[in-house]
Design goal:
Layout (H helix, E strand, L loop, with lengths): L1 E2 L56 E4 L15 E3 L2 E13 L7 H6 L9 H11 L2 H4 L6 H12 L2 H17 L6 H8 L9 H10 L4 H9 L4 E13 L5 E9 L11 E3 L2 E5 L4 E6 L5 E6 L11 E3 L2 E5 L1 E7 L5 E10 L5 E5 L2 E7 L3 E6 L5 E6 L7 E3 L2 E5 L7 E7 L2 E8 L9 E3 L2 E6 L5 E6 L5 E6 L9 E3 L2 E6 L4 E6 L7 E6 L9 E3 L2 E6 L2 E6 L11
Parallel strand pairs: 1-6
Antiparallel strand pairs: 2-33, 3-4, 4-5, 5-6, 7-8, 8-9, 9-10, 11-12, 12-13, 13-14, 15-16, 16-17, 17-18, 19-20, 20-21, 21-22, 23-24, 24-25, 25-26, 27-28, 28-29, 29-30, 31-32, 32-33
Length: about 550
């Protein structure tokens, strides 16, 4: 295994052939980019999948080394190409701090406030917080008592200026630190001491006793959060790490969760701090790096077509896929999370991308905007021929079908189903989608009319996008804790199989060769969906 150190700086289109531009090594059986080979959530090739799972779920083939997710590692989803699994991680770590500094937030946690109460009010507050009445209150009644006291004793002009400091003292009761001690500690707010010993000396000289010293020291950070934008390559057969490449970055947690895109022999991903990376997929060697014009907290994923690598990095941006040079930006289509898809408009190749508010269509070659329509949320749109479906968290948009014309898009139908980021699937004249947040609804909708063939509850789900393989929908439900499977059919809805898997929140699975690749809270796991459970033993 090779690992480079921290020294590195720096929708559909069926029949279009998304990857011909670079002679992609990935096959149709791979899942080389966000939402699969055709960017629509559909596996065009799949072996027969088992329609039942044992109680413990589909067989787990392997689980990778420990890889953090969420706040400690981001929410990027895995992709699979050429027998390898690729994952982008904003890998957080602790960096020791030699100096010791009491920050403003730490001082406030101890009870200090810069506002000073008038002498008469201060006397009343101090008597009230130390009173027997306050001491006898059960914990669940303190808040009401504090609110009532403040309402009864604060003058109108004091309500805004002093309510916070008064309520803070009353809530702490007899545990509140003396105001003189707090003011003394305020003299060293944001002042760095070279060592812990220097800080200890100051505390001793100023009469800070041991118990209070522990509280003060507890508010002083001894480490800081740093992170590397890390690209991990795993063997798809056994999950072993083949290589890992790190770029020094900022600890952004889930705010920078771009899913990698593999096109040809290259991998493209947007990291943190506007950084964009292109690596060789075999060894992880850096091909080029660049910076987006905005793009600090980006979860959009690259689309590579006709020599361009396009992503929503603030403004929709096209990089030269070979060199990393920015070819165009389009600020009229701007956002952080949705990913672009392709639409062939006659002889013109177009890019369609959702944003936080609208949905826009731009010429792939020039970036010129052709039209915009209402959209919204972090959902990636689904496109099939001349129909587009967008899934929005805006109530007035919901799930809307648009008819695509050469120079505009017209509303065909709207369904009252909302989601912050899940993406729909269009197949065989139907739209399949899961969303609704806490409602957890799964729907099958006629693509022409918008009429629902069925609309069923499946458990809380949002943001994660489903997969269609072997005529079956595979999706995360129950707040990402469970994996479920049902037939992609307008006839009826019936869960075929369901099992606990503990997926990382807001991530989506990848599918290749009958295997499901899932980011879990502490790594990547591979499940075999083709294996049938053994038949019950004969009596």
């Amino acid at each position: 295994m090779m690992e480079s150190g921290r020294s590195v700086r720096g929708g559909w289109a069926v029949g279009i052939g998304l990857w011909l531009a670079f002679g992609n090594m990935a096959t149709a059986a791979d899942w080389p980019q966000w939402r699969g080979p055709d960017r629509n959530g559909i596996a065009p090739e799949s072996p027969a999948l088992s329609e039942t799972w044992p109680p413990e779920g589909p067989p787990k083939v392997w689980q990778s080394e420990a890889i953090p997710s969420a706040e400690q590692g981001n929410l990027s989803s895995p992709v699979v190409a050429g027998g390898k699994v690729y994952l982008h991680v904003n890998w957080r770590y602790k960096d020791p701090i030699a100096t010791r500094t009491l920050p403003d937030g730490g001082l406030r946690n101890l009870g200090w406030r810069p506002e000073k109460m008038p002498e008469e009010l201060l006397k009343q507050v101090e008597e009230a917080r130390a009173s027997e009445e306050r001491a006898k209150l059960p914990g669940n009644e303190v808040g009401k008592w504090v609110e009532a006291w403040a309402a009864a004793h604060l003058l109108t002009d004091e309500q805004k200026k002093l309510a916070d400091v008064v309520k803070n003292r009353l809530n702490r009761g007899k545990d509140a630190l003396g105001l003189g001690i707090l003011d003394k500690l305020a003299t060293i707010k944001d002042k760095p001491f070279a060592t812990q010993e220097d800080l200890d000396k100051w505390l001793a000289e100023n009469g800070i006793e041991e118990e209070l010293k522990k509280k003060v020291v507890g508010q002083i950070p001894t480490t800081r959060d740093l992170a590397d934008d890390t690209l991990v390559c795993l063997d798809a057969a056994d999950g072993k790490t083949l290589w890992k490449v790190k770029f020094p970055s900022a600890a952004t947690g889930w705010d920078a969760s771009s899913t990698p895109c593999v096109a040809g022999k290259r991998l493209y991903v947007h990291g943190s701090q506007k950084n964009v990376y292109c690596l060789d997929v075999e060894k992880g060697n850096v091909v080029w790096t660049n910076r987006a014009s905005q793009g600090n907290n980006i979860s959009s994923s690259f689309l590579v077509q006709d020599g361009l690598a396009v992503i929503l990095a603030g403004p929709l941006t096209a990089f030269d896929a070979q060199t990393g040079e920015v070819k165009w930006t389009q600020p009229k289509i701007s956002g952080n999370n949705p990913s672009p898809v392709l639409w062939k408009n006659g002889d013109r190749m177009c890019v369609i991308c959702n944003t936080g508010g609208n949905l826009g269509c731009a010429d792939l070659k020039t970036g010129d905007v052709l039209w915009t329509v209402p959209g919204g949320s972090s959902s990636t749109t689904a496109v099939s021929n001349d129909l587009l479906v967008v899934f929005s968290d805006r109530k007035e948009v919901g799930m809307t079908g648009y008819r695509l014309l050469p120079d505009k898009a017209e509303t065909a139908w709207t369904l009252a189903l909302n989601d912050r980021g899940a993406s729909p699937i269009i197949a065989n004249g139907r739209v399949y989608a899961i969303g609704g947040g806490g409602g957890g609804r799964a729907v099958c909708v006629d693509v022409a009319t918008g009429q629902a063939a069925w609309d069923e509850k499946v458990g809380s789900q949002e943001i994660s996008s489903p997969i269609l393989a072997d005529g079956k929908i595979v999706a995360l439900v129950d707040n990402y804790s469970s994996l479920a499977m049902w037939k992609a059919s307008p006839e009826k809805f019936a869960i075929l199989a369901k099992a606990k898997v503990g997926a990382a929140a807001c991530t989506s699975p990848a599918f290749a060769g009958g295997k499901l690749f899932l980011r879990v809270s502490n790594g990547v796991a591979c499940y075999d969906l083709t294996v049938k459970p053994p038949a019950p033993a004969a009596p």
